[in-house]
Amino acid sequence: MTAAHPGPLTLVPVTVDERTLRVELSGDLDFVTADGLLDGVTRLLRERPGLTDLRLDCGGLAGCDSAGLAVLLTLRRRAARARVRLHLDARPAALDRLLDVTGTLEHLAGAPPEAADADPARNGRP
Q: Which of 78, 84, 98, 121 has the most C-beta neighbours closer than 10 Å?
């Protein structure tokens, strides 16, 4: 017997100010819902070129699997390229454990990347 999926991941964008956008997440961030988060947040980054801070409010996340983690890592790269700091706010303990076990906690939730990190050409990387 297959367990029913708990439902779609919901994203609620809330403009904090002209440079900061908060996206409230609720539901499971998993194989079924990860592409929706990637598409939605990528669209928001494109629509707001003056953004400096993108705050993902993770307080409503019920769970996160490896596909969800992959999307969070992709979003961090896309935000860095756009010179936007990605913040993972109100992380549930289970998400912190996942980030810790996978060695991605400091990368995703630590200090924001320097401007040079956002531009591969400035780091000498192709």
A: 84
